Amino acid sequence: MKAYVMDAQGNHSLQERPKPTLIDDSDVIVKIEKTTICGTDLHILRGNVSTFKSDTILGHEGVGVVQECGSRVSKYKPGDRVIISCITSCGSCSMCQKSQFGQCINGGWILGNEIDGCQAEYVRIPYGDNSLFHAPEDIDSESLVFLSDIFPTGYEVGVLDGKLKPADSVAIIGCGPVGLAALMTAKFFSPSKIYAIDNNPHRLDAAKELGATHTINNSENTAVDQVLDITDDVGVDVVIEAIGIPAGWDMSQKLVRPGGNIAVLGVHGKSATINLEDMWKRNFTMTAGLVHTYTTPALIKQIRAGHLHPEKLCTHHFPLSETDKAYDTFINAEKHNALKVMITNS
């Protein structure tokens, strides 16, 4: 089969790989219909993910059709269309028993990281009963692909962990796809103000269209001053950091109001300093971590009700044979006005 692989030297390309087979009796083999590229995949390409195993097929998002099931799989059968969760959950370890599926002792984020992922014709999903969702036939497949990761991540790790409440103000640092997903799900709580911060005018335009009340261009590093000026130097109730670089964390510390919350979505590959000499007295809360995907069923309901439109983030389409081109487009997003790219296995 065709699959997109990164080797030990950091080279990434479409290759011929063996079709996956069942290894454990909880496995499910899925034929990919559609997949996509995540910002986390770019962190892997840049060497910022220490757990990545070289010569692994990339990707952890997708929708497909079940081809084969292990003997212990009871929720799925061949022919079922499924959403692949970016998180693999065994369902029985001490962390899964606490619904901390992202920290599963036997799984977690392993797809396209420690084991072969979804940017291929077929993928093996361990613990299939707990790591897949049935794909509703009344929702377009592109929206469903984005429920694999960015919308549960934006909602759970950003909005819910950030304790956003009705009438709160929220600043979203970084308007890439996951930041925009956080913005779109933040609207469930009717925040009074949504400050969208980015250097990319196209992304800021998208944020405005998707509901931001204020778009702040940080190309001259003035975003903090702009927001503090609007808020009379108080800051905002919730800061969602969605870029994963030290500058994003530094901005978060400066923007959060006393008693407010900082929720870190970004994948940080370098150390960032917590300035406790300034922050200790501000009664702030900081959260960070992996998504657990427990909100996927609720997000499906929000799409069906017309309150959420993930497909609005899809800007480019490619066949699997042009995955190199899809990566070039996603890496050079500003040049191509790209948000999410869709890759179809034809």
UniProtKB/TrEMBL annotation:
Belongs to the zinc-containing alcohol dehydrogenase family. PROSITE patterns: ADH_ZINC. Keywords: Metal-binding, Oxidoreductase, Zinc. Signal peptide: none annotated. It comes from the Bacteria. The lineage of its organism: Bacteria, Pseudomonadati, Pseudomonadota, Gammaproteobacteria, Vibrionales. It holds the Pfam family ADH_zinc_N. Its cofactor is Zn(2+). GO terms for molecular function: oxidoreductase activity, acting on the CH-OH group of donors, NAD or NADP as acceptor; zinc ion binding. Its EC number is 1.-.-.-. Gene3D superfamilies: Medium-chain alcohol dehydrogenases, catalytic domain, NAD(P)-binding Rossmann-like Domain. Residues 10-339 form the Enoyl reductase (ER) domain. It is an enzyme of class 1 (oxidoreductase). SMART domains: PKS_ER. It comes from Vibrio aquimaris. This is Putative zinc-type alcohol dehydrogenase-like protein YjmD. InterPro entries: ADH-like_C, ADH-like_N, ADH_Zn_CS, ER, GroES-like_sf, NAD(P)-bd_dom_sf.
